[in-house]
């Protein structure tokens, strides 16, 4: 039997040992497997306690069995779940027994979700949202993933694609039936005004892509400044543990260090960098080069300077926001006018206010209260292609209707590639390789 048509199984719950382990089965032989193991097939969607035996009659365990006849299942195929005790030996024995069934095999990474996609139970954005939901570590990541996995983003894109399809249909009607009395003489009022609105909606949505990626991947905050300005002390204080070595020796930090924080439900990736100064020491120069590269890729820079010294406000390649921090407030007095905030990492002075500044920066980046936002580079690239094609159709009214209709088709095609409504086979292996086995 073709591998794609074989029945698959896998451990779908967490690592062992555990209180309960869930074995998931999907495919045409799922119900036969359940009957062989439990003696009968329980009623659909009803948890039933069964004794699970090998085909030789040896008892493996007692557990709950649920069945989900297709197509009303996660994958669209016949599915079953076996809930057993989560001991390593118990699970290993059941998996070994499953391997003995003809046309049954262990599932590959993401194969259950891939079958759901192929059987029309999910689209590509929903699958990606499910992967993000499994890996979500903060509340905002969870909310963004739920929006995608539940189909909120897909519904938006499908609505736009429908509008493009209707516009193309009206254009084709005018091209093919221009001499008919019941076909409008011009589609400009019916089509192009709506396409102009759609272009604005798409552009506004695309502008939210930066924030979507920040929610998903984390806000990149880089601590920069001269040696001994207190950069390592600050990252230790914010992380509430020793991430970086702190000494009085200038140039102690030579490489880029980072720690992941959860600030008000947002993921924040905080980077400590080498002190910025002119030096001939080879290793330190490399650390400074890496520091400047990290700053250039940052979303936000915390520029530190001891109170009384100027805080750097411009960095090569960085055009974002810089927050100027005067450090060692417990040792030096100074006016706050030269800095956005005075802090003392030793005694915690100003750290709560710094947290709030970071939160405010995150909220300022949010284009709206909705999290129906693109969160991956793939989304943004295809949205940009769709917007460019739509702009060509709307702006160049000197072109023939047939050429403008082709631009609309290209725009709809790019939207379809986001959800997988058109051929995206080249993307699937990459996407599903990120999944755990059993999902």
From TrEMBL:
A Pfam family of the record is MnmE_helical
**TrmE-type G domain spans which residues?**
218-363
Instruction: Specify where it is mainly localized.
Output: cytoplasm
List of residues binding GTP: 228-233, 247-253, 272-275
Which keywords are on file for this protein? Cytoplasm, GTP-binding, Hydrolase, Magnesium, Metal-binding, Nucleotide-binding, Potassium, tRNA processing
What Gene3D superfamilies does this protein map onto? P-loop containing nucleotide triphosphate hydrolases, Probable tRNA modification gtpase trme, domain 1, tRNA modification GTPase MnmE domain 2
Q: Which InterPro entries match?
A: G_TrmE, GTP-bd, GTP-bd_TrmE_N, GTPase_MnmE, MnmE_dom2, MnmE_helical, P-loop_NTPase, Small_GTP-bd
The positions annotated for binding K(+) are 228, 247, 249, 252
Q: Which PROSITE patterns match?
A: G_TRME (PS51709)
Cofactor binding mode and count? Binds 1 potassium ion per subunit.
Q: Which GO terms describe its cellular component?
A: cytoplasm
Q: Which GO terms describe its molecular function?
A: GTP binding; GTPase activity; metal ion binding
Q: Where in the cell is it found?
A: Cytoplasm
Extract one GO BP annotation from the record: tRNA methylation
Ligand binding (Mg(2+)): 232, 253
Cofactor needs = K(+)
EC number assigned by the record:
3.6.-.-
In this chain, (6S)-5-formyl-5,6,7,8-tetrahydrofolate is annotated as bound at 24, 81, 121, 439
Q: Which family does it belong to?
A: Belongs to the TRAFAC class TrmE-Era-EngA-EngB-Septin-like GTPase superfamily. TrmE GTPase family.
Q: Which NCBIfam families does the record associate with it?
A: PRK05291.1-3, small_GTP
> How would you summarize the oligomeric state and partners of this protein?
Homodimer. Heterotetramer of two MnmE and two MnmG subunits.
Role, per record: Exhibits a very high intrinsic GTPase hydrolysis rate. Involved in the addition of a carboxymethylaminomethyl (cmnm) group at the wobble position (U34) of certain tRNAs, forming tRNA-cmnm(5)s(2)U34.
What is the designated name of this protein? tRNA modification GTPase MnmE
This protein's species is Rhizobium lusitanum
């Amino acid at each position: 039997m073709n591998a794609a048509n074989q029945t698959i199984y896998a451990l779908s719950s967490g690592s062992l040992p555990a209180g309960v382990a869930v074995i998931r089965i999907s495919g045409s032989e799922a119900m036969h497997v359940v009957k062989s193991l439990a003696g009968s097939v329980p009623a659909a969607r009803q948890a039933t306690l069964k004794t699970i035996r090998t085909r030789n009659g040896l008892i493996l365990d007692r557990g709950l069995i649920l069945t989900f006849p297709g197509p009303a299942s996660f994958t669209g195929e016949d599915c079953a779940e076996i809930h057993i005790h989560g001991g390593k030996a118990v699970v290993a024995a059941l998996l070994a027994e499953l391997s003995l069934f003809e046309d049954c095999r262990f599932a590959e990474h993401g194969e259950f979700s891939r079958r759901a996609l192929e059987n029309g139970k999910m689209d590509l954005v929903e699958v990606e949202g499910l992967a993000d939901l499994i890996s979500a570590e903060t509340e905002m990541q969870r909310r963004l993933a739920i929006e995608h996995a539940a189909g909120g983003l897909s519904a938006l894109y499908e609505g736009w694609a429908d509008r493009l399809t209707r516009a193309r249909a009206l254009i084709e009607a005018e091209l093919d039936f221009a001499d008919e009395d019941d076909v409008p003489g011009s589609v400009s009022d019916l089509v192009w005004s709506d396409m102009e609105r759609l272009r604005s909606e798409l552009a506004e949505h695309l502008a939210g892509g930066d924030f979507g990626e920040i929610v998903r991947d984390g806000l990149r905050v880089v601590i920069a400044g001269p040696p001994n300005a207190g950069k390592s002390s600050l990252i230790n204080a914010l992380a509430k543990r020793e991430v970086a070595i702190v000494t009085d020796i200038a140039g102690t930090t030579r490489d880029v260090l980072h720690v992941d924080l959860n600030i008000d439900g947002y993921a924040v990736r905080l980077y400590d960098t080498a002190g910025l100064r002119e030096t001939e020491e080879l290793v330190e120069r490399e650390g400074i080069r890496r520091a400047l590269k990290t700053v250039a890729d940052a979303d936000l820079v915390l520029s530190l300077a001891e109170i009384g010294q100027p805080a750097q406000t411009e960095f090569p390649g960085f055009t974002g926001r810089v927050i100027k921090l005067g450090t060692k407030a417990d040792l030096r007095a100074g006016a706050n006018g030269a800095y956005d905030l005075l802090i003392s990492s030793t005694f915690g002075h100003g750290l709560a206010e710094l947290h709030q500044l970071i939160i405010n920066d995150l909220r300022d980046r949010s284009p709206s209260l909705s999290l129906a936002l693109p969160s991956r580079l793939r989304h943004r690239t295809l949205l940009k292609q769709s917007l460019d094609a739509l702009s060509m159709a709307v702006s160049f009214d000197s072109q023939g209707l047939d050429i403008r209709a082709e631009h609309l088709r290209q725009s709809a095609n790019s939207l379809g590639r986001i959800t997988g409504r058109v051929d995206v086979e080249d993307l699937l292996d990459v996407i599903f390789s990120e999944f755990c086995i059993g999902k």
